[in-house]
Automatic annotation (TrEMBL):
Keywords: DNA-binding, Transcription, Transcription regulation. The keyword Oxidoreductase does not apply. It comes from the Bacteria. PROSITE patterns: CNMP_BINDING_2 (PS00889), CNMP_BINDING_3 (PS50042), HTH_CRP_2 (PS51063). This is Crp/Fnr family transcriptional regulator. Residues 135-208 form the HTH crp-type domain. GO terms for cellular component: cytosol. SUPFAM superfamilies: cAMP-binding domain-like (SSF51206), Winged helix' DNA-binding domain (SSF46785). Residues 1-121 form the Cyclic nucleotide-binding domain. GO terms for molecular function: DNA binding; DNA-binding transcription factor activity.
Length: 215
């Protein structure tokens, strides 16, 4: 979100940023909480989750180093639309919404840059949701694994044997499928030698072959 900002604008953002640490499995904020802070991930991972009235959950997104979440707090104080919890120990930079709004009033061009970046993220989300609505469960699960592979490689993992920290339930939530359906497809991938599974993790042995399942 801040990639297009120049050094002067980045320095202003840095002035209102505060380091925060979270343990593995810790809730950063809950759906319905007051919204006054956004977070930039430095190390570790988190995920955004929404819960249905009947108790079912769906994972909306995962976040890794360089990602930002809770960014709407920079523009308004509406209540949180999802719960964000850490997957592993996480270090982040916290930016209070009121502080950021004061910075944007001083530098209107900064507000325009952030609004443009937010619009691009919203457009990408809409495209992803539209694409998923036409995909099979298998294709959605494969697509989620592929995204996690790309994220891991970006963070420095080997592009050939890529380990992902995620449970079958995590993958099912991200793909918007049942755990049973995701489990059956993962077993198919394992028999094909594309992945191998362990407790709370899986290793992708053939990322190229995985792409053949995404359509």
């Amino acid at each position: 979100m801040f990639a297009s900002l120049g050094p002067d604008d980045l320095a202003l953002v840095a002035e209102v940023s505060h380091p925060r640490r979270f343990g593995a499995g810790e809730v950063v904020f809950r759906e319905g909480d007051e919204s006054n802070t956004c977070y930039v991930v430095r190390t570790g991972h988190a995920r955004a989750v929404r819960e249905h009235a009947d108790g079912r959950q769906i994972a909306l997104a995962t976040f890794g180093p360089g990602d930002i979440f809770g960014e709407l707090a920079m523009f308004d104080d509406e209540r949180r639309s999802a719960t964000v919890e850490t997957i592993d120990a996480m270090e982040a930079l916290a930016i209070l919404g009121p502080d950021m709004r004061r910075v944007m009033l001083r530098r209107p061009q900064l507000a325009v840059a952030l609004a443009s970046s937010l619009a691009r993220r919203l457009r990408a989300t809409n495209e992803r949701l539209a694409s998923q609505s036409f995909q099979t469960v298998q294709s959605r699960v494969a697509g989620v694994i592929q995204q996690l592979v790309e994220q891991a490689v970006t963070e420095g993992a080997s592009p050939e044997e890529v380990q992902i920290t995620a449970t079958q339930a995590d993958l099912a939530m991200l793909a918007g499928s049942s755990r049973e359906s995701a489990s059956r497809f993962l077993a198919t991938l394992e028999r094909a030698g594309v992945i191998s599974q362990g407790r709370g993790r899986l290793v992708v042995h053939d990322p190229d072959a995985l792409r053949n399942y995404v359509y």
